[in-house]
Structures are given as C-alpha cells and as structure tokens.
Design a protein that fits this description.
Layout lengths: L1 E5 L3 H13 L3 E5 L10 H4 L9 E4 L4 E4 L1 H12 L7 H31 L5 H21 L13 H10 L13 H11 L2 H7 L13
Parallel strand pairs: 1-2
Antiparallel strand pairs: 1-3, 3-4
Helix pairs in contact: 1-3, 1-6, 1-8, 4-5, 4-6
The structure holds glutathione.
C-alpha cells in the first residue's frame, strides 16, 4: 500500500496517473497547496521541500519526494512503464531529466506569470512563454516519427510530460501548431488510467481538447 500526498497539479497528476496505470494499491491524502498545507510541520517530515507530490510506501516506511524519483520508484516496484537497463534505460533518464529540468520549471513559470498573474510582468511572461514554445518545438521534433517519447514504448516519460501538456490552455499554447505533440496528447488522453489519475484528488478541471 502506497500513501500518496498530492494535489491536482501537473506534478501531482504524474504520480496519480502512474499509480492508476500500475494498479498498485494506494490511498490519497489531499494536500491543499492553495491553503498552505504543504507547510504543515507534519507534512514537512515526509516532504521537506514544502511541495507535493510525496509518497510513503507502507511496506518499508520509505518516504519519497520529487516526482521524477517517485515515478522511478513506482516503475521499479511495479516492473511497469520503465526500461531497466541498456540504451533504453539511458534514453529514459535523458528524457525524464528533460521533463524535470525544462518542461516542468519553464511551464510552471508560465502558469505563474501568464495564467495566475496575467499582465503583471511582461518581461517574465515573454521569457517563459518563448522558452515554453521552444520546448514544445523540441518535443514536436522528437515525436515526428515516434508514438511515445521512448522507442521502448509508453513509459514514465510520457506520464511525466502529459500533465504539463494537459495545461496547454493555461500556457496559451495552440496544440495545432505542434501536430506531433497533439497526436501524442490525444492518444494518451484516452487512456482510462490517465482519465482517472487526472481527477485525483477529485477536481473539476477538464483536460483541454484542442480544436
Ligand atoms: N520538482 C518537484 C516540484 C514539485 C512542485 O513544484 N510542486 C508544486 C505543485 S505542482 C507545489 O507543491 N507547490 C507548492 C509550493 O510551491 O508552495 C517535483 O517534481 O516533485
């Protein structure tokens, strides 16, 4: 049994989607970051960086923060959605690091400056939206002749990137300008585990549907 401490954000959804995909048994503990619950002393014992998601594995008492580490832990534990050796393993690391170092941080800043604080800081908005468009270009190029980010198949890399593309509406990104990302997104969006994981903790945010 896994305890999941999370909220309905891109980083949180990575883990709820992975848990739904693997079928591992888990219990959700909502951490309302809009109310500052990520700063509660009890939460900080398992999430010392004041951020969701965090998991605790009841089998061994291990707590893990950082979504990239959590995805790998769950991949290893379930034996699913993660290559374990050879070139495929390193390609998984490469694209997972790309998600953690570029997709998440840059798009997260777009959510702050373009969505939540629209018009308050034009320079920051321009910088992060331009970087986000560049990243969409990188992903589009990579997906030109691929169904998923890894030639190996559907993996934790797709699961890590999907919830960020699932906020393209907040990013003012038109997926029609990135045909390969759009195809990839529409394909993954239909997966029953993705649909369930998107709604954990329960929320009323629809996944955007490009026209
Ligand atoms: N690198 C971390 C980032 C986690 C993160 O930024 N979580 C956000 C929600 S998506 C959060 O908890 N924000 C609350 C805060 O910054 O106070 C990860 O991938 O797990």
């Amino acid at each position: 049994m896994i305890d999941l401490y999370s909220w309905f954000t891109p980083n949180g959804r990575k883990v709820s989607i992975m848990l739904e995909e693997t079928g591992l048994e888990y219990q959700v503990h909502p951490i309302a970051i809009n109310k500052g619950e990520q700063n509660d002393p009890e939460f900080l014992k398992i999430g010392p960086n004041n951020k969701i998601p965090v998991i605790v594995d009841r089998n061994n008492g291990l707590s893990i923060m950082e979504s990239g580490a959590i995805l790998q832990y769950l991949g290893q534990k379930s034996g699913k959605f993660m290559p374990i050796d050879g070139d495929d393993y390193w390609k998984m690391q490469e694209w997972l690091m790309f998600q953690m170092a570029s997709v998440g941080p840059m798009m997260g800043q777009v959510h702050t400056f373009v969505h939540y604080q629209e018009g308050k800081n034009v320079e920051a908005s321009e910088r992060y939206i331009n970087e986000t468009k560049r990243i969409y270009g990188v992903m589009d190029n990579h997906l030109t002749d691929r169904e998923y980010f890894l030639d190996w198949g559907y993996s934790i890399v797709d699961i890590a990137i999907f919830p960020w593309v699932g906020r393209c509406d907040w990013q003012t990104i038109d997926l029609n300008e990135y045909e390969n990302v759009k195809r990839w997104y529409l394909n993954i969006k239909e997966r029953p585990a993705v649909i369930r994981g998107w709604n954990i903790p329960e929320n009323d945010q629809p996944m955007p549907m490009p026209s």
